[in-house]
TrEMBL record:
Lineage: Bacteria, Pseudomonadati, Pseudomonadota, Alphaproteobacteria, Hyphomicrobiales
Family named by the database record: Belongs to the UDP-glucose/GDP-mannose dehydrogenase family.
Protein's recorded name: UDP-glucose 6-dehydrogenase
Pathway field: Nucleotide-sugar biosynthesis; UDP-alpha-D-glucuronate biosynthesis; UDP-alpha-D-glucuronate from UDP-alpha-D-glucose: step 1/1
Catalytic activity: UDP-alpha-D-glucose + 2 NAD(+) + H2O = UDP-alpha-D-glucuronate + 2 NADH + 3 H(+)
Organism: Roseiarcus fermentans
């Protein structure tokens, strides 16, 4: 394909050279004449392992040329890949000036060329969810009018790390393609034909959020690991040994478990151990701000779920909760977030019923018994059996344990906390 790459920084230049190595004809577009002269002389303006040799090969094969004219590629290229920067603005948001400007230039180029064939514009820059729909598409629509159908807009985030960008380009951890309706893009599929990775074709907003989720999680991991490191140093513990033990657990620690948006954490282990580690860290002066935020974040999620449950629900409405224990197939009520939800519903004046087949009040003992009746003194009156749950009409069913699909419920609104 004939491909224009807008923005020749780390992402753009690496992508342009890698695509040229696959046989595509590449036009690199950048505002810096100095950078263009460097590239055209065979000198990479960025340091990236393997890139200098690949640049030399691209220049020798004449698969790569550069220009500062942003309108030129719209005449005869099949695709444009936008890799311009989105640096932080003063308020912490992304500065979208370059995205808007390149989009306007592409629209002007398409209009000036009067092209009829489809032109695919792929954005790789990290952008806020809603940017394609709220900024990019309106610019194309305003500039092109009825001719906007000649533009296919795709959001395809990159997952390249500096110092291993070439390797990551050809071996990405995943491929995410965002389109208007979540349907595949033939040209982007052709672009990625040599890549072997799990592919997710989704709508724009899901694709746009991907990099934020990834990068924030990477930052969280670094900050958390360093907090544990500080605790280890303060307590004269070998942090390398602790790390080795931690990452060896690929069943729970380094795995998809505990990473699905859903209910808050609870039970007899997580809350008490988080509090205890928080106390230890404060006692020894380790300043563990990430760990300190865990309980507050969990409490905030409890309130979020309550607010979501009662949204537009009139006072006195009948509510059925499926599951009271902190997880299904157990009767452990200690620090169960579902007890907090039940208590909030009762305090809010809602007519609450609870069905939990694993729970028998007469079998509760010790701390489990004390916690249950301290927080829900009317527990016995709230519990109903399966026949009653299926026979009564309810205004809302709140499914906290994923059991709603196994019951024949008389309710049009089921709120599944396992599917936020």
């Amino acid at each position: 394909m004939r491909i224009a790459v807008y923005g020749l920084g780390y992402v753009g230049l690496t992508g342009a050279i890698c695509l040229a190595s696959e046989g595509h004809d590449i036009v690199g577009v950048d505002v810096s004449e100095h950078k263009i002269r460097q590239i055209m002389s065979g000198v990479s303006p960025i340091r990236e392992p393997g890139l200098d040799q690949m640049l030399a090969e691209a220049m020798a094969s004449r698969r790569l040329r550069c220009t500062s004219n942003p309108l030129e590629p719209a005449r005869d290229c099949d695709m444009a890949i936008v890799c311009v920067g989105t640096p932080s603005a003063a308020d912490g948001s992304h500065n979208m000036r370059d995205i808007a400007e390149v989009t306007r230039q592409l629209a002007d180029g398409v209009r000036a060329a009067g092209r009829k064939e489809k032109f695919t514009v792929v954005y790789r820059s990290t952008i806020r969810p809603g940017t394609v729909e709220g900024l990019i598409l309106p610019i194309f629509a305003s500039a092109l009018g009825d001719a906007r159908d000649a533009i296919e807009v795709v959001y395809n985030p990159e997952f390249m790390r500096e110092a291993s960008a070439v390797k990551d380009f050809f071996n990405p951890p995943k491929i995410v393609i965002g389109t208007a309706d979540g349907a595949p893009s033939a040209r982007v599929e052709a672009l990625n034909r040599n890549l072997s990775a799990q592919t997710f074709t989704v709508k724009y907003r899901e694709a746009e959020l991907t990099k934020f989720v990834d990068n924030s999680f990477h930052a969280l991991k670094v900050a958390y690991a360093n907090e544990i490191g500080r605790i280890c140093v303060k307590l004269d513990i070998d942090a390398k040994v602790v790390h080795k033990i931690f990452v060896s657990d690929t069943k729970l620690n380094i795995s998809p478990y505990y990473l699905r948006p859903g209910g808050p954490f609870g039970g007899s282990c997580l809350p008490k151990d988080v509090r205890a580690l928080q106390y230890i860290a404060n006692d020894i002066g380790a300043n563990t701000h990430v760990i300190d935020s865990l309980m507050r974040s969990n409490d905030a999620h409890k309130h979020f779920l309550f607010s979501r449950a009662v949204k537009a629900l009139p006072e006195g409405a009948s509510v059925l909760m499926l599951g009271l224990a902190f997880k299904s197939d157990t009767d452990d009520l200690r620090e169960s977030p579902n007890i907090d939800l039940a208590r909030k519903l009762l305090q809010g004046g809602y007519a609450l019923s609870i069905f939990d087949p694993s729970l028998r009040p007469e079998h509760l003992l010790g701390q489990n018994l004390g916690y249950a009746y301290t927080h829900l003194p009317r527990l016995n009156d709230l519990l109903i059996d399966k026949a009653t749950a299926e026979s009564r009409p309810f205004d809302l069913v709140v499914d906290t344990n994923g059991s709603a699909d196994r019951l024949s419920l008389n309710c049009a609104t089921v709120l599944d906390f396992y599917a936020l």
